Amino acid sequence: MGKPIKVNSVFDIEFIVEVFRMNLQGNENQNKDNKNIKVYVRWMVRRDFSEVLAIEQSCFEFPWKEEDFIHCLQQRNCIGMVAEYEGRVVGFMIYEVPKNRIHLLNIATAPEFQRRGVAGQMIQKLVSKLINQRRSRIVLEVRETNLPALVFFRASGFRATVVIKNFYDDMNEDAYVLQYRLPGHSDPTFAPQNRITTKIAG
To answer: What is the pTM (predicted TM-score) of this model?
Structure first.
């Protein structure tokens, strides 16, 4: 894993985001009739694994394996949650809770439910935990080529703080470290670690 490089501006991928928005123009008409749905965000249990793995496989080029989920969730400070809609798991997230932050390791929405507010509701769940658990920020790493994730998290109030060279072992790909901070809190240094070598959060 390469060394972190500080991002000079508030968010240094403005140009990438604009290019991606141009590419989205052809898809917007296809999705304009998709209405947001209300999901129930709850703790992940063992019986959810088959649906979670299916979502993972459908969303990522380098998906986590079942043993990756099990290994991660066996850690004392690692938590899994799912978004449920009409009895079906349509999204999930895995995160850990160090002392002063929430570190989002993985988040995904089933393709047929994307752009319907599912991921946004999961992020809002994490924001509410910041307040309730007296933590100040949410952090995660995103592949430099994962433009949909970069656009989503920017719209959700996240900002890039660091670029890590060669963070992802599978493709020697860089990662943006994104951070959401509660107003009024300082911006301490965060040194991310690649907990799952194949992929973390995209």
So the answer is: 0.79
Segments of the chain with pLDDT less than 50:
8-11, 15, 19, 26-30, 189-191, 194-200, 202
**Is 190 among the domain residues?**
no
Give me the domain span that covers residue 15: 4-22+37-181
Residue 168 burial by CB count (10 A; 0-12/13-18/19+): exposed, middle or buried? buried
Residue appearing with tokens 């969730």:
73
Q: For tokens 């099990």, name the residue.
A: 70
30 part of a folded domain? no
Distance CA 31, CA 140 (A): 27
Kind of pairing, strands 4-6 and 40-43?
A: unpaired
| CATH code, domain with 11 | 3.40.630.30
pLDDT in tens, 173-198: 889 999 999 876 555 544 455 444 43
Element (H, E) at 22: helix 14-31
How many distinct structural domains can be found in the chain?
A: 1
Domain annotation covers residue 198: no
192 lies in some domain:
no
Give 94's contacts (C-beta < 8 A, 6+ positions apart).
69, 72, 73, 78, 79, 80, 104, 105, 106, 107
